[in-house]
Write a structure and sequence with these properties.
The complex is a heterodimer of chains A (91) and B (238).
Chain A (H helix, E strand, L loop, with lengths): L3 H15 L20 H15 L5 H6 L3 H11 L4 H7 L2
Helix pairs in contact in A: 1-2, 1-4
Chain B lengths: L2 H13 L5 H15 L6 E11 L13 E4 L5 H8 L3 H9 L3 E7 L2 E10 L20 E9 L8 H15 L5 E7 L3 H9 L3 E11 L2 E8 L2 E8 L6 E3 L3
Parallel strand pairs in B: 5-6
Antiparallel strand pairs in B: 1-6, 1-7, 2-3, 3-4, 4-5, 7-8, 8-9, 9-10
The chains are: A mainly alpha (91), B alpha+beta (238).
Chain lengths: 91, 238
Amino acid sequence: MPDSVILDRVRALVSYYSGAAEEGLSTDSSPKNTAGWDSVANLGIMSAVEDEFGVTVATRDVIKLRTLGDIAAYVEANANPLPAAKSASGT
Amino acid sequence: MSLRRRFEHLTEELSRDDNSLGDKVLRIAQRGTVALGLSPRVSINRLMIVETSSPPKPFRGMRDVIVRRATERDVGVLCTIDDGDPARIRGWLARGDLAYVAELDGEVVCHTWFHPGPTPFEGDRAVCADWALDAGTFWSFKGASRADVRESGLFVKLFQEALREVFEVHGARRVQGFIAHTNHPSLIMHERLGFTIPGSFLAIGVGGLKWIRWDGGGRTRQWLLPRASSTAIPLPPP
């Protein structure tokens, strides 16, 4: 399960670009089951993830990231530790 | 397009809540004429016209994707993406249609095409009629992605960069195209890239005749034309 701070921030990005309500988004949310999360939104989400977390998401990886949980897990594995995440975990 | 892919398309279209019952019935009738072997003697098409007069904003993501003009050397791989006809694709390239491809790790995975006006685009003759384009208008007539990259946004990246080049390098003042009325993903993509929908065509062909109805700009127009001819005979408004 991805870090909850990362998950919340990814959820906010997905909500912003898809127009879906944040409270309706879960780790299983994907373009297949989320209205508004189309290919244009997906491109926006991936660009925003790069800006927000300082990661570069290779296009090969974009194709594999199918759910909100996948994106959050990718960020957790590839981003430098986030100030907010550090604070939340008490480290 | 494979039979399986056609079936998946139809299933997806029929399951969508944003397609009205009328849309679904029309789509079933349209697919049915093909499945029953009645096409092209009988054909039914409802098409939404899309157009834009300005290039879309650039996206920052997918910087490792290379977008470039297609050449004769790409014909083979383009045909593998969507069961294309090599002779037809070579003909498009030879007459100056603009084709762009997206390359990922050295592999061509998507392509998109534009036909420059004012010469009429004959490729949709089976659906509607030939019609002259204004000089400076480009007809967006084809786009396809390899199955494994669909829905990723990669085609959007290609289409967006290609559109920018069509406007900025090739002097387009307007880009138009049409999309099946039930293809909501494509309609949404176009709208989000700045296209508007000025109207729609309904084209019904039976035997040697075709009837075309245009709804847009607050008015309805209709024509009758022989299939073998591109000359449409205007009919009084309904």
